[in-house]
Every structure is written in structure tokens, then in C-alpha cells.
């Protein structure tokens, strides 16, 4: 009996008929351990391989059955997960971003929310457990340009995924994959605030600018970026995500193609209930500044932490700009990515 249990691989457990069944989840493992103890096979040496086995045993038989709960549990370190959302055409950008994340040794916490099955299967084949798909899936063949209707569809789901992770009790960092890390961002997430974010305005601020939500401009708008957000699993952060979802639903026509205005309205409306923290401009510059103002980049040298390749239209233009600035890492450094070289 014990032999049989030990030799049964997690991918061929007895309940193969039920594809949703996950072998050896916590209770299952407990059961197995108690069984082994009952059978007098409970020596630490005997148990050890089983226990290390259990980390891979939370893997489903088919990745389409892998839930966000399982995936978050698998990748989280220090109750923290780093998430991004990716559709198939953006895999090269994902890999580029991942290399930069790996250089800061945070890749283990990365969970890719795959927008289509091709992405889900490819990532999990190369890097098991690090991609999850939350229904509905998008058609892999549709090109999702930044700003297109398809792109909007998936950005509008962002606060729902983030809220779900907060409800599960994780700290969550969200990144767009057209970003590159130059330093470890976690050391900049000072204090115990609910939500951390960056300003997308290109106006240069003093280095000691306030960490409060910026004042609205003459149009009554703020331009906080929905591209890089860090949230702690506290009431305020959840409230902010709920308001963001509400704003997206209320204004879906007006916001078509962009979830950022809704995020800004959510920040505005929850301002008195949420502990907000605006990250430093020099550390987290918008692409409108980093790629367009050489003088500023020179003056703030060594202070940049995450660079965002926005304020540019078009997939290949974006890629070219990374190349021009020495930030396109996938050609020469693909081996540094947990995904390796793609195709
Ligand atoms: C930033 O520094 C300047 C000059 O040292 C000072 O006058 C200003 O009050 C500071 N601003 C903040 C927000 O601390
Ligand atoms: C919220 O938006 C309104 C309208 O633009 C503005 O008057 C108000 O100052 C904003 N509040 C905050 C906290 O930014």
C-alpha cells in the first residue's frame, strides 16, 4: 500500500476521471502522511521525498483547471505575488520584463495571468505553475494592440484579479510587461500603506516631491498610471479595487480602450478611506519622461528603478525603442529568463 502510494506520480493519481480533482492538496497530503505513519513508515528519511514532492503535486492534470488560488499559493513568497497579464503576441515583452525581474531575484513570485490558452500552455510547459488563465479566455490569434478594443477587454479585468488576490491575503504587485526593472522595487515600497502607484504625467517634479495623490489638473483629472501598482491585503486596497471595478462598469463606453481614467476616479473617490502612496518620479518614471528627456535622465542617473515604455504607439515602435535604449534584453540574455529562449 505504502509502496503504491509512493510510486504513484502526482500526475497519475487515482482520481484521473475527475479532471478538477487536485492530487495531494493539503488534506490529501495530511491523509497520506497519517497513512504512512499508521503503516509504520514514518521515518523522516522516508517522508522527506514525499514532502518535497508535494510542491509539484498541487499541479493540475490540465492547466485549464489550475485556479488562481492554487497558482497564487504556489508562487507566493513572503505572502507576496507579482502579477502581469499577457496575451500571446506579447510573449517577447513578457520575456524581456522577466529577465529584468530575474536580475533582481524576484522571478519566483511571478504569476502570469494568461489571456489565451496558447500562452497558458506555453508558459507552464517551460515554467510549470507560473501561468494561470481566468475565464473567459481570449482568442490567441487576435492581435491585442495597446488601446484596442481587445486590449481594453483584458485591462478591465485587472482590478478583479487584483481584488481576488487581496481577498486571498496576498500583497500584490501588478506590472505591465512593457516595463524593465533596473533595481529592486521592493525597497521603495516604504511604510505600510494600502496602495502604491506612479504618476504618468511628464511634468518634472522636485526629487523630494510629496507622496500624496497629486492635485487634479485644470480639467479636474489626475494621471496616475494603472501600469504598476502595489497593494497590501488591507481594507483600503480592497475598497480601491472595488471602486475601480464600479467605475469601469459605470463608464465602460467613455473609457473604451483604457482602464486608467477609471482607476484615477477610484483614487479620487476613495481618497479619504484609503492610505495611498505616490512613488518617486525619479525611481518610477513614465516613458514620456524617461525616453524623451535626456537631460532629466542624466540628472536623475542611478535613481531609476522601473522604466515604463509607454507614450508610444505601436508594437514594433515599442520594441525598437527598448532596443535603442539598450533595454531589449531578450536577444542576448534570454538564458536569464525562466522561460529561456522563446521558439
Ligand atoms: C523639498 O526641498 C525644498 C528645498 O530643499 C524645500 O523648500 C521643500 O519644502 C521640500 N518639499 C517637500 C515636499 O518636502
Ligand atoms: C476629486 O475630483 C474632483 C473633481 O475633479 C476635484 O475637485 C477634487 O479635488 C478631487 N479630489 C481629490 C482628493 O483629488
TrEMBL record:
It comes from the Eukaryota. Residues 106-322 form the Nucleotide-diphospho-sugar transferase domain. It is found in: Golgi apparatus membrane. It is a single-pass type II membrane protein. InterPro entries: Nucl-diP-sugar_transferase, Nucleotide-diphossugar_trans, UDP-D-xylose:L-fucose_XylT. Its EC number is 2.4.2.-. Keywords: Cell wall biogenesis/degradation, Glycosyltransferase, Golgi apparatus, Membrane, Signal-anchor, Transferase, Transmembrane, Transmembrane helix. The chain crosses the membrane at residues 29-51. GO terms for molecular function: UDP-xylosyltransferase activity. Its main location: Golgi. GO terms for cellular component: Golgi membrane. GO terms for biological process: rhamnogalacturonan II biosynthetic process. Belongs to the glycosyltransferase 77 family. This is Glycosyltransferase. It comes from Brassica oleracea var. oleracea.
